[in-house]
Design brief:
Radius of gyration: 21 Å
Structural class: alpha/beta
Number of strands: 14
CATH class of the largest domain: Alpha Beta
CATH architecture of the largest domain: 3-Layer(aba) Sandwich
CATH superfamily of the largest domain: Type I PLP-dependent aspartate aminotransferase-like (Major domain)
């Protein structure tokens, strides 16, 4: 039975990237050595890092003055790396859910932090809008896509201060004007690779402005200077990122991916609207293209476990909502084919026919 992988992360990756990675584990590009046993200082792997950086710059149209590097530790490690490098006096955070709150908590260790806006009043079911951004803060931190609650910022905001964005779960899913951001970062395990690597895109002129001493492993300047090689980087994940970005380029890049993502999400959201058993969990204008959250309508709540069990039997993987909110979540990251979105819709229709007699 074909499996349809809706997991929120680690998540589905392009089949070609998985196949190439499988081969490289045994023999990396004819070297006779397994990729996972190769020196990160070798010329062969250096070429991988260089090409991966170039693909980032090309696919995202990254302007001059920005650097791309890769580190381990996950996006959550960046929650404290960011204030270590950028917070001198005061920082602003927009609170749109669990990960934004965790980022804000870490920043509190380094200086004054203000909550510029929040959607907690309605259980993070929307993205705050129309808020005033203080001009006396060192940076404003936002989370562009909220995997748990299924909301997403669909347009780049205009910000009078350095804008820092966690794009762990929507990077490369839609066009982004990188020039509006001082820094973009995220974990790889949603849209670009397996768990274990974190990407950072940073405008160089914002670095070196804090007065505190910074430990070497945390100092962005050293990571930039050493091109991801200050210490041993996550070799295997970086290779898979390269293969994933090569696939993305081959299908037409971010613009084409955006069209596909809107179509995939639209198919599922349309069914949620039509089907009397379900309703969306996020407000319509802020619904995520990457994490589609929905719940059972009133009167059908007793079908929660039945839906999960029957969907799993039908080949649907990872539809259970996050433990904090319950319900269901279909993550439709870049590598998920339209076929899987259509299969979920078909199952939802069959489930409706079976349980509304």
């Amino acid at each position: 039975m074909k499996k349809h992988n809706f997991s929120a992360g680690p998540s589905i990756l392009p089949q070609v990237a998985v196949e190439n990675a499988s081969k490289a584990v045994l023999d990396f590009e004819g070297t006779g050595l397994p990729l996972i046993c190769m020196s990160h200082r070798s010329k062969e792997f250096d070429n991988v890092v260089v090409e991966t950086e170039q693909l980032f710059k090309e696919l995202l149209n990254i302007p001059d003055g920005y650097k791309v590097f890769f580190v381990g530790g996950g996006a959550s490690t960046q929650f404290f790396h960011i204030p270590y490098n950028l917070l001198e006096k005061k920082a602003g955070y927009v609170n749109t859910g669990v990960w934004a709150k965790k980022a804000k908590k870490e920043a509190n260790l380094f200086g004054e932090v203000v909550e510029v806006a929040t959607s907690e009043d309605k259980k993070f079911s929307y993205v705050p809008k129309g808020y005033s951004i203080p001009t006396d803060i060192d940076y404003l931190h936002i989370t562009t896509n909220n995997t748990i609650y299924g909301t997403e910022l669909h347009e780049d905001i205009d910000c009078p201060v350095n804008l820092v964005a966690d794009m762990s779960s929507d990077i490369f899913s839609r066009p982004v004007d990188v020039s509006k951001y001082a820094m973009i970062y995220g974990g790889a395990q949603k849209n670009i690779g397996p768990a274990g690597a974190t990407f950072v895109i940073v405008r160089e002129d914002i670095l070196g402005k804090v007065s505190r001493p910074i430990p070497s492993m945390v100092d962005y300047r050293l990571q930039v200077k050493n091109s991801s090689m200050f210490n041993t980087p996550p070799v295997f994940p970086i290779y898979v990122i390269r293969e994933t970005l090569k696939w993305l380029k081959s299908i037409g890049g971010v613009e084409e991916m955006y069209k596909i993502n809107k179509k995939k999400a639209g198919v599922i959201y349309d069914e949620i609207e039509r089907n009397p058993l379900f309703k969306g969990a996020a407000v319509k204008e802020d619904r995520s293209l990457m994490n589609i959250t929905f719940v059972l309508n009133e009167g059908f709540e007793n079908l929660q476990e039945t839906f999960l069990e029957e969907s799993k039997a039908a080949g649907m993987v990872g539809l259970k909502g996050h433990r904090l909110v319950g319900g269901f979540r279909a993550s439709t990251y870049n590598a998920l084919p339209l076929e899987s979105a259509e299969a979920l819709v078909k199952f939802m229709q069959e489930f409706e026919a079976k349980h509304t007699k």
